[in-house]
Amino acid sequence: MRIWSLHPKYLDTKGLVALWRETLLAKNVLEGNTKGYKNHPQLNRFKASRNPNDAINHYLSEIYEEATRRNFNFDKAKINWNFHTERMDVTTGQLAYEVSHLLNKLQLRDIRKYEELKTNLIFEPHPLFNLVDGDIEKWEILNKY
Questions:
Q1: Are 59 and 88 in contact (CB under 8 A)?
Q2: How do the domains of the chain map onto residue ranges?
Q3: Which run of H or of E encompasses 43?
């Protein structure tokens, strides 16, 4: 499971669809509707937020908006739109790690998107997140790149 700290606009089609699916799974976990993935590291930051359900619905709403910009047909009814806007922190080290991780994935599966992004100097976080100085988050499972 990868719930990106990066803005969803950087994801290729496969990445955006996977993010939607995985975040819906995370939402079900946070709502207590499934037995699996309860202790997945990607969920720890949502569990630690002031209101995990609002946070995950806010997160999903931004994925939905990006999908809509791309003329995808994601099911709006999967989101509880009565959420209060949440803000959570993500570190600069985490964002940098995710940029590297994404570029490596794109180099293999979507060279056009890779070429589009490889010279970006600035990558925005998902709108749920405030960017703060710091290393890679403790919950991250590191891959070598």
A1: no
A2: 9-132
A3: helix 41-47
